[in-house]
Amino acid sequence: MDRSIPAETVARIAEYARDTLSAPRFAHVERVVQLTQRLCRRFALSEASGLCAAWGHDIAREWPEDQLLTWSQRDGASQRDGALRRDPLNDPLDALERRHPVLLHGRVAARLLLEEFDVRDEAVLSAVRHHTLGHPQMGPLARVLFVADYFEPGRAFLTSQTRTVPERDDLNEMVCAAIEDVIRRGLELAPVTARLYRQVKPQTPRRDGGMNAS
Question: Quick one: fold of 7-201?
Answer without folding.
Answer: Hypothetical protein af1432 (1.10.3210)
